[in-house]
Amino acid sequence: MLRVALLVCLGLLAFAGSAAAASSPARQLDNALDKLVAMPGGPPGAISIVQRGATRTVHRAGVADRKRRAPIRSTDHMRLASMSKAFNGAVALSLVDKGMLSLDDTIAQRLPALPAAWGPVTLRQLLDHTSGLPDFTQAEDYQTTLRRNPRTIFMPHDMLLSFVVSDPLRFPPGSRYRYSNSDNIVVALMAEQAGGQAYDQLLSSLVFTPLGLNETSLPDGFGLPAPYMHGYDNEGDPPADISTALSMSGVWASGGMVSSPIDVNEFARAYVGGKLFGQAARDQQLQLVVGHSEPIGPGANRAGLGIFRYATRCGTVYGHTGNYPGYTQFFAATLDGERSVTFSISEQVTQDMTGRRLKVFNALRRAEETAVCAALD
Known about the structure:
Beta-lactamase; 11 helices
């Protein structure tokens, strides 16, 4: 009788174990990726990296290229979109840490050639999007230029601000939050002025080289290094490959970077984990204001300096999101850098879209939170 009872008990334990494995956050993440690419209007491909300590797992669904049907790899290149702003923050805060910049430095002090009305705006306000600067990507002349020639090379890079130099500030600096791509163009120009080097050189010396990010770059043209995750516009049938449709000089420091999921994961762990600058700069970085990343990230969002806090059902992480034609991105990590997540899909979706694209975005946001749970489980 005892033996029978013991066998029954062991059987129940085995069933419970298999049920737990089936419902684990890792399995839930795999299911979420599968459902995401299977949705009407869903991305052709999705990939997420989850790392807990030294243990790293890669979750993926769909394909990197609809023609070749090849799976996405963690080393495939991709557009980082506004996750580039976190790299921008890393450069600026590294210079602050070295005493070469101050968060209280103003545009008037560092870049006096820019409009006098912008003069009082500080580096801090640029980094947490409370500057009030008009967004050059919303200017009609800028959009007309891209419609005429999507591969236009905008050089020098401060040319991007020429589309809004005649526009007033949207609000008094520091009085409210509003996401603006112009903020990070000015941050990069301030970094160049303080550091005495071109922005891509500062990226290399302060971020890429220390972290060994060999697959990360800031190109000006439209090409992508092979192999790469192709980005698509899913409104057409079949979806149009728009991976190389636009010149990266058109967004530069605000969204033009190229990297791979594995490099982004390494950056996330170092940037959020405080490996790129000292505690004093980090304490300033984590002074939060009301605001969300673009697109909005999982859970409740708050904005810091080149970083966002995401308070999810499973815990709190810090990182950044991004979206660009063909790509939507997310990375986050815990403040000790020990647990991290990246999430990339080959389609642009945001909370401002409608119809099936909004449904895809809502599913994406749930999947991102599931990925966070897999990292924090």
